[in-house]
Amino acid sequence: MRSGAKVALVGGVFVVVAGGVGYGGYNLWTGVTGGDQTVGVRSEAAPRTGPVTGDEVTATARDFLVAWAAGEPEKAGQLTNDPVTAGPAVAAYREGGAVTEAVITPGPAVGPKVPFTVKATITYEGVSKPWSYASELTVVRGQTTGRPLVKWAPSVLHPKLTTTAGTLRTGEAQTASVKALDRNGDELSVEKYPSLAPIVAELRTRYGAKTGGTAGIETWIESGSETVPDTTVLVLRKGRPGTLRTTIDPVVQAAAEKAVKAYGKAAVAAIEPSTGAIRAVANSPAAGFNTAFLGKQAPGSTMKIVTAAMMMQQGVATPGGRVECPPDVVSRSQTFQNLDRFSIADGTLSDAFRRSCNTAFIKAISPLADKKIADTALGDTARDSFGIGLNWQVGVPAADGSVPQSAGSETPASYIGQGRITMSALNVASLSATAKNGGFLQPYLVAKSLDDREFATAEPLSREVASGLRGMMKATATNGTGAEAMAGVPSPKGAKTGSAEVDGQATSNSWFTGYSGDLAAAAVVEEGGHGGDAAGPVVAKVLKAG
Q1: What SS3 state is found at 66?
Q2: DSSP one-letter string for 383-446
Q3: pLDDT tens-digit series, residues 38-83
């Protein structure tokens, strides 16, 4: 403990008083030693091995928390397995966050984990406010020293510190306050719609000043990441919020939030095809990365919407035209096969689409096929007809989708949504919206008149291509791989299933997209398997709410 520090007992918790500032923690009955009472004593014994013991967990947690509480960041850092990172982070917590008092109360250890609560006071320019939260730490054995150490992660200091570059800040808010409204003019509550929290934070950053809001005094988690917005954790003095109307439909949003909660990692987005207005966006988990807008994942067979459009545009096939669907096919020295190696005898493109026959879409466009098309054709159709890869100006950060030029076996793989193609749930929802509408309308969350941003545009689909896509998607939704999920969804409706293989995953990602009336949606469930099994029910619940 540093010079001048005093120790007093308050409600059963030892409080370290240093420099007139109280920080709570356990008493240093052996000093800060990481649970090892022999620190400072030279020993030739080999480093300890094996799991940490209960006594080591308790003592190490005690010593780390009291060093943190005493305002000794270097000492706290040395009690972790990453002192170079941990020490400055502990210092920044107190200084940057303007934390003037805190009582840290550990709970009983559960294995190597120790939960604790922090009851703090934050003071800035004469304004003080209490702040409390719960967190936990984990004790591990040092790989080289054998000492018990706190496994360092920024979330030890606060559970919302999720990035290494993140830190706690208190001061005048960097952006003006904003009250986000739904399409009806009612306030969107992030407590009710937790997936909107990062989106509302981004709207505040971009449009707070433009909507007439003023900044208040706040404490926030500064993420240090371009893709993770800052998160306000305490408001010391409120600013005057401006109001910003979004395109979110509260009924559809509520359905989307509920649907994705059934899965550990899932995302869904919904669009109004006739306008491009985004009606819902939801993620599981809800906090943090906005996968529905920013995800970059292989879309699997939902990509066959684009591939089928390309085939019709290039004269390769029509919905009623015959195509071969063998159990497997070799293209560019790579073997591709259908699920369970099924085949379709004397089938049409519509049959291949509704049953998601991989080999039909590859064989008809192979270098050995009668009709030769360039390897760039798929990317051209994706960009020129569906807006994929253009600069989408949604109003918040969103991936534009990517269908890069391919070579070798990546080319046939791209026809079935594998290879290097990446899309988000919003991108795939837009594929359905484009088919339903007959042309691409860039999805948006706030009106472009707010900041005069330029929307991406694409050429309308021909009447024949648009009609063909809608017919094949209807067949999928009523008599194909999407029929079970889409049962009960109102007509007119259409769908496309997909599953995407991912390196390192035993189970593929589940994809599904569809439309009903003037609402289109797409969902991805990581490791969800077949499209109709996991993502399908998510999309169906969203469409039924529209």
Answers
A1: helix
A2: HHHH-TTS----SS-----B-----TTHHHHHHTT-TT-BB-HHHHHHHHHHHHHTS----BSS
A3: 433 344 567 888 999 999 999 999 999 989 988 899 999 999 999 9
